[in-house]
Amino acid sequence: MDVITGGTGQVAGGTRPQTGPALETHGLTRSYGARVAVDSVELLVERGVVLGLLGPNGAGKTTLIRMLSTVLRCDAGSFRVAGVAHTDPVRIRRAVGVLPESAGYPRGQTCEEWLTLHARLFGVRRRDARALAARLLGEVGLEDRRRSLIAGLSRGMRQRLGIARALVNDPEVVFLDEPTLGLDPFGQRQVLDLVTRIAREHGVTVVLSTHVLDEVEQICDRVVILNRGRVVADGTMAEVVRRAAAPREGRLEVPADHRARALDTLAAHHVPAEPGANGHLGMVRLELPGDVAPEDSSAAALRCLLDAGVPVLGFSVEGGRLSDAFLRVTRGDGDE
Amino acid sequence: MSEATRTRPATTAAAESPWLVMAEQELRDLWLSGRGLAVMLAHTTLLSITTYLIATNQELNFLEQREAVALTVQVTVAVGGLLVVLVAADAVSGERERGTLETLLLTPVPRRSLLIGKGVAAMSLWFGAFLLALPYLWWIGRDVGTFGSAAAGTFLAGTLLALFLTGVGLLVTTFSQSNGLSLALSFFLLLGLYAPHQLPAEASRGWAGETLLKLDPFTSALLYLERLVINAHTLTQDLPLLVVPALAAAGILTLALALAGRLSLLPRSG
């Protein structure tokens, strides 16, 4: 099991005790009938981390979040959130904030009314709850929508309101389940900026479940990839990419009359290569191993060509991104 | 961000009971959104039509004045009960379908408190229906002096039935797969409970018939009200008839609250 340690969002002071990991699961399992949604998940996430939780549709991300936030019971295993054992769900709920996937909103309530209600349900006094609601609305950029009915908000505004609701109890761990789902690029940008700011300013551990790998690359310190309910990758972005051993593609440009020699030379050095497409007679595509640093594998390929006297006009490497690793470890699985 | 926003918000365990917070919000949602007022308007319209028919329709006009009061009492109890059971039946399954249940379950509030808060809101419809019926009871029974006993008896028996139906609705909604199922099941349960009261007189004769009627909380309560209003019995004279509704209300509410811990996002999984 990998220990995921803090990155951008180190916990910022505050009055809460800061001991132990933010999340810890052991053999966490949950089934729906015969289908195992989450299968023996082992996780250890230190405080202050922004963790990207990835996986194809039906991988078990939402079920895992629901178990960790005590909305669903686990069939087997145990977990601790913010140092609180799963046997004490009320204390866990006090320590977490959650933006559920496809959360519904009471359309007939105002933004302030809804946040105030939730703050009061967390034990905040009525007057303090109203002040807290106003402050949180300001934080998510909805201060001018205090008295607006939720029914009148755009989807992006509702997501930001949902994030504000997830903060009413000043949580230690925030779970955001697909926060940018259905948003336009501008809305996505706003929500991601907000998540980054929350992680930095509130000093909370953020678990961001998403399908959008770019989002994870932009804001997450660490990543966990689930597939068919199991953790198939866990670590920093670089670690996950390296462990996934997703092959990279090298694009080599040589003079057209040297291409055949280049292909022969690469074959002799066991570097898989083939003529490039698009009718460009000087292009060669070669596959670089994913488990070797790209600079090392590229240098080795270029060295053998140069040693063989093949002039190299250009060389570039593609791949080795999180999306390559994701596809590699999930093998395109998913329920859609 | 200031330090104030980083420290925990001021919380207090004793200041507000979660069920009261929940009830307050549910009452606001029900009454200020216009839903409660709309059904009260419908109830008033129904009472007005009934009263008008009693006053003008030749057949109904032959009713003894006490019987007319009893009819109004029955309408009030039936409509109040229907409203209560439908709102209670929507309480959890409706939130589940609208996607708003999860955020409530994410709060540290005990499931029981959520149900109590929603039950209070459902009960408020009965009290609304009862209050609206008072002027009609007074006007129809003004010549026979039944207003006081009819009002008190209706309040007593109707409240017991409303509590019972709140329990039925909450129990059904907690475990229903869909809101439609919850509403339909609760509605048909209400009809089933009301049915024995509509049986022909022959069916209620004999030991078995009487037992059936007395074991049905609706029939017992309505029998109590009939004797109170039509036979001019005192409030306490037929109190044993309210034992069944009282026990049924206590039993079903206890059951609903005892099983509240099994209230979950997915009705059959927890």
Automatic annotation (TrEMBL), chain A:
One of its GO terms (molecular function) is ATP binding. It comes from the Bacteria. SMART domains: AAA. Residues 23-253 form the ABC transporter domain. Residues 1-12 have a biased composition (Gly residues). Keywords: ATP-binding, Nucleotide-binding, Transport. InterPro entries: AAA+_ATPase, ABC_transporter-like_ATP-bd, P-loop_NTPase. Residues 1-25 are annotated as: Disordered. Belongs to the ABC transporter superfamily. This is ABC transporter ATP-binding protein.
UniProtKB/TrEMBL annotation, chain B:
This is ABC transporter permease. It holds the Pfam family ABC2_membrane_2. The keyword Membrane applies. It comes from the Bacteria. The chain crosses the membrane at residues 37-56, 68-92, 113-138, 150-173, 180-197, 239-260. Keywords: Membrane, Transmembrane, Transmembrane helix.
